[in-house]
Amino acid sequence: MTGTDAHLPAILAGALTPESLRLRFARAAHDPPWQPEHLGDGGPAGLRGRSAAAVLVPLVSRPGGLQVLLTRRAAELRDHAGQISFPGGRAEPQDEGAAGTALREAEEEVGLARDRVELLGQLPAYTSVTGFVVTPVVGLVSLPPGPVALAIDRHEVAEAFEVPFSFLMDPAHHRRHVFVHEGGQRQFLSMPWHGTAADGSPREYFIWGATAAMLRNLYRFLAG
Predict the structure, then answer these.
(1) Model-level pTM?
(2) Which terminal Cβ of the chain has fewer Cβ within 10 Å, N or C?
(3) How far apart are CA 105 and CA 152, in angstroms?
(4) Domain range for residue 97?
(5) In whole angstroms, what is the distance from residue 36 CA to residue 124 CA?
């Protein structure tokens, strides 16, 4: 780790309510275009080989404030095994745009019914090192009180968990890393969260890579 971004301001709690988020996304339709901080972490140099994909950024309404629903991918998957991610995946011909892909994948992966999701808007696409052009779709989610009770597809998802939205929107928790790759240096962000696993044991969830980058873009969007 090379440092954190504690010098940047956290998004105030009043801007992280459902109503404030609705207003912010509505205003974005009329504001000048904004520039995301992270557009990707690599991938094929040309358009050939790239695949459209989408993820749902699920903001769950809880009495103590919004929570972000994240998943830990199954260890047997070919791409990004064991990593923390949003529900999502490759676009299919029958999907109605990025929102349709995100909602279908969330339903397939964690059993999140689409009628529980209020779509707010989309963030700029992010190109992953595996060649996916991923559109983050932000939505408010209503779930019953209590722990996450979802129908998880164990072939794709090892577990689902929630992280306070306020934690992720505070740059003091955004850590910067540098590593050497193919003779050059590359940077990435992480947002480690110390939570509780489904069996009640403490666990550190290392949120990094594309998921952390898209959360950072959401921070920049809300800070604008």
Answers:
(1) 0.92
(2) N
(3) 11
(4) 3-223
(5) 7
pLDDT in tens, the chain (224 residues): 789 999 999 999 999 999 999 999 999 988 888 889 999 986 544 445 689 999 999 999 999 999 999 999 886 766 656 799 999 999 999 999 999 999 999 999 999 999 999 999 999 999 988 889 999 999 999 987 766 568 999 888 999 999 999 999 999 999 999 877 666 677 889 999 999 887 889 999 999 999 999 999 999 999 98
